[in-house]
Design brief:
Length: 156
């Protein structure tokens, strides 16, 4: 990606009005502009990343998580990003059996689910940066109302 100084240098060189050698007064002036514009460009880059859950920085990721959780997760950033994206994609609409993997991820659960005796049995291998209570609260929000479910530890 071309930064502002490179872009200004390219435009001025192509205009034919300037011949920038790298040590002219105009080159030094462009360097000064770049010093001022650098932090702005960096802020814009971070803002663009933070607009989407899958690219958000850790600080903004916490804000994304608090949209549906009481607190930010303590899992690694990639796990947190996937969980946020899964939760955000679960808003509204019907829930089908094929959606269970994304629901578990959104609730911060690494595991599997099966349907048995009219309810969903969720086998938890690991909680991903959330407490068992928080995962249960999220499952209650993400699974259809009236669907009976329970969790069990892997190997139980």
């Amino acid at each position: 990606m071309m930064d502002s100084v490179e872009n200004m240098r390219k435009v001025l060189n192509e205009s034919g009005a300037y011949k920038l050698s790298g040590d002219s007064a105009v080159d030094r002036e462009l360097g000064a502009y770049g010093a001022g514009l650098g932090p702005v460009e960096e802020g814009l880059r971070r803002l663009e990343e933070d607009m989407f859950a899958l690219t958000a920085g850790e600080e903004r990721l916490g804000a994304w998580e608090r949209l549906y959780r009481r607190q930010a997760s303590w899992a690694d950033p990639e796990t947190r990003r996937r969980g946020v994206a899964a939760a955000l994609s679960r808003r509204g609409g019907p829930v089908l059996s094929g959606d269970i993997e994304g629901i578990l991820e959104a609730a911060g659960i690494k595991g599997a689910a099966r349907f048995e005796g009219g309810k969903v049995i969720i086998t938890v291998a690991e909680y991903l940066g959330v407490t068992e209570e928080e995962a249960g609260r999220l499952l209650s929000r993400l699974l259809p109302l009236g669907l009976q479910w329970e969790t069990e530890a892997a190997g139980a």
